[in-house]
Amino acid sequence: MPKGELRNQIRRLRFEHGEMTQQQLADRVRCTRQTIIALEQGKYLPSLALAFRLARILGVPIEEVFQYRG
Questions:
Q1: pTM score of the predicted model
Q2: DSSP H helical segments within the chain, as ranges?
Q3: Using an 8 Å Cβ cutoff, are 30 and 54 in contact?
């Protein structure tokens, strides 16, 4: 998949949920802070399981967290 096709709103959603830190989110979805950083920067594509965990923890549909632009 070419870089930049999958966009996300993780950073915005973290702040809308009580200014959750990257580390707090990482702990809740069982990944590393470095993974959250890479996701927010668009440098890493999450597994489907991680994408669903992020959406669940952030309390929104997966389509609100990730947007595919083909």
A1: 0.89
A2: 10-16, 22-29, 33-40, 48-58, 62-65
A3: no
Higher pLDDT, 68 or 52: 52
Q: How far apart are the first and last CA of the chain?
A: 10
Q: Which helix (H) or strand (E) holds 67?
A: strand 66-68
User: For 31-43, what is each residue's pLDDT tens digit?
Assistant: 999 999 999 999 9
Cβ atoms within 10 A of the Cβ of 43, count? 9
Is residue 68 within a helix (H) or strand (E), and if so which, with residue range? Answer: strand 66-68
> Which residues, listed in sequence order, are joined to residue 6 by a DSSP beta bridge?
68
- Structural domains in the chain? 6-61 (1.10.260.40)
Average pLDDT over residues 10-20: 95
